[in-house]
Amino acid sequence: MDVESSAQGRVHSALAETCSRHRQACSRTMITRLGLSLHRRLPIIVGYFSRHDAYNDASTAFWILMNPDLDALHPYPFEKLAALKAELTPPASLAHIPLTIGEPQHAPYPGALAALVAHQAEMARYPATNGLAALRETIAAWACQRFALAGLDTERQVLPVNGTREAIFAFVQAALDRSRPAKVAVPNPFYQIYEGATLLAGGEPLYLDCTADNGFRPDFSAVSADTWRDVQIVFICSPGNPTGAVTPLAEFKQLIALADEYDFIIASDECYSELYLDEATPPPGLLQACAELGRDDYRRCVVFHSLSKRSNLPGLRSGFVAGDADLIMPFKRYRTYHGCAMSLPMQHASIAAWQDENHVRANREAYREKFSAVTDVLAPVMDFPTPEASFYLWPAVPGGDDIAFTQRLFVEQHVSVLPGSLMATIDGMTTPPGGHTCSRFISSATATPAAKRPRRWTKRACPLKPTTCAKTGCQQRCWNISCIASR
Fold first, then answer.
1. Which of 104-108, 303-307, 434-438 bottoms out in mean pLDDT, i.e. has the lowest?
2. Element (H or E) spanning 158, and its range?
C-alpha cells in the first residue's frame, strides 16, 4: 500500500470512529458538520479523498475544511475582473494597458536597494519580532516630524511589520473580541483586507458608504448609538483607496470623541499619505489629530504606514504600526507567535528609505506631472473628482454601467480598468459605486498614452445625443457587451 493510500485509510478510519462515537448520520450532505465536529478531536487534513466504506459504501468525494469561515470570504476583486474578461477577446493589434493594480511604476529608491546588498549576509540571522532598535527609532523620528508629534515610545508604541496588508489582517485577529458583538466599520468601497480580516476573526463588517454626496468619506453621524455600541474597530483609509479622498483633522477628532464614548479602536490605514498634489498641504493623520488634542498616549488609536507607495518598494513588504501602547504591546505578543518578523536586510533597507525625503519629493513631483497630463486628457469626456492624494482616479462611467463599460473598453481598446462595484458591497447603498471605475492612470508607466486611448474611444462611443441601437433597441449610451457589433 502506498503512503497516500495508507494516509487516506487512517483518516477515513478516524472519521468513521468519530462519527460512530457521536452517532452522526454519515450522509453525502454532512461534510460541513463533520468538519466542525472534528477540529477539536484530531488534526484536520485539508485534502481530497474518496468516501470510505464506513460512509454507506458511497464513493462520493468530499473536502474537509480547517475553518468554515473561509466560505464567507468573497473572491478578490481581481479574480472577479478575470472572470468578467474570461470570454472576451481584445484586439491583438493594440498593446495591453493595465490600469487595475495599484503598483508603483517609478524606480525603487536606490539607497534601499544598496542597503539590501550591503547587509545580505545578515540573512543568516533570525530577526526579532519588534525589529532593530535603529529601525524603530528611525520610524519614530519620521512620524514625529511628519505629523508634528511630541514623541513616540520606540519600545511600546512602534512596531515594524511586513507591509500594511499583512499587519491590518493580523491586527484584526488580535484585537477583535468575539465573545461579544463584534462589528468592524469599514469604508464602502473598501480595501478588501478590511472585510476579509473581519470575517475570519468572527466579526461582522459594518459598511459606511462613501459617495459623492459625502465627499467619498464615511458619514459617522449617520451611525446610530445602538450600532456604535456593537462596534469594536473602525477602519479609516486616508488618502482613500480607491477614491483618493482625504480625511480632515476635524473628522479624525470627531471619530476620536466617538471612540471615547463607545469604546472602540480606530485603525487608520495611511499607506498613501506621502502621495499628494499640494506640497504645502500634506494629508493629516490620526496621530496628528491625537497630538492636537493633547493625547500623547494615542489612546484607542493605531496607524498603518508603508514604504510600498512612498518609496516605490512594494516588493520589500515593509511598513509599521504605531499608536496606543495598550494595543501595540498585545499585538506584538500575537506577532511573536505569528512568526512574521521582518528579515534584517529588509530592516536596513527600510532604515535607509525612512531616513531620506529627497526621493519622496521627487516621486510626488513625478505623480503631479502625470495627474496634470491625465486629467487634461480625460476631463472633456469623463467626470471625476480631482483627488487630493494617492495615485487613483475614480471616474464616473458614461452611461452608468461600470461592468459593461469595463468589458467594452477591454474588447475594443485592450485597456483594463477595475469596476467600482467589485470594490464595494452595494446592497442597501443609496448611491452604489457601480457607476465608477478605479483607474490607475497616474501610476501607469506611460500615463498620457494610457489616458488618450480611453479618451478617444469614450468620445466616439458616447456621443452627446443618444441614438437607438439597431441590434437591441437600447440607447447608444448603453454599454451592453451585446451591442458592440452594432456600434
1. 434-438
2. strand 158-161
Q: Is a pLDDT exceeding 90 seen at residue 142?
A: yes
Q: What is the predicted pLDDT for the residue at 71?
A: 86
> Is the N-terminal amide bond of 239 cis, ω within 30° of 0?
yes
Residue-number span of the structural domain to which 333 is assigned:
124-354
Cβ atoms of 332 and 156 closer than 8 Å = no
Q: How far apart are CA 419 and CA 78, in angstroms?
A: 10
Q: How big is the CA angle at 160 (ends 341 and 296), to the nearest 5 degrees? A: 145
- Residue 175, amino acid: A
Given a cut of 50, is residue 240 above it in pLDDT?
yes
Of 115-119, 153-157, 234-238, 418-422, least confident by mean pLDDT is 418-422
Which whole number is the average pLDDT over 280-308?
Answer: 97
Q: Please indicate, yes or no, whether residues 61 and 178 belong to a single structural domain of this protein.
A: no
Residue 161's H or E segment, with its range, is strand 158-161
Q: How far apart are CA 230 and CA 204, in angstroms?
A: 10
| pLDDT at residue 453, as a whole number | 60
Report yes or no on 274 lying in a domain: yes
Q: What is the CATH number of the domain that holds 346?
A: 3.40.640.10
Question: For residue 305, which amino acid is it?
Answer: H
- When pLDDT is averaged across residues 398-418 and rounded to a whole number, the result is 87
d(CA 155, CA 132) in angstroms, rounded, equals: 11
Residues 6 or more apart in contact with residue 89 via CB below 8 angstroms: 411
Q: DSSP letters of 140-154?
A: HHHHHHHHT-S---T
Please list, residue by residue across 223-232, b when 16 or more beta carbons sit within 10 angstroms of its beta carbon and e when fewer do: beeeebebbb
Domain end (from 335, 354, 373)? 354
- CA 6 to CA 44: how far, in whole Å? 16
How many folded domains does the chain comprise?
Answer: 2
Distance in angstroms (rounded) separating the CA atoms of residues 464 and 477: 9
Q: Which of 354, 377, 403 is the last residue of a domain?
A: 354
Residues 61, 149, single domain; the answer is no
Cell numbers placing 19: 462519527
Write out the three cell numbers for 486: 452594432
- Check if the beta carbon of residue 441 is closer than 8 Å to that of residue 99: yes
| Cell 526579532 belongs to residue | 128
> Across-strand partners of 437?
419
Peptide bond preceding 385 in cis form (omega within 30 of 0): no
In a domain, residue 159? The reply is yes
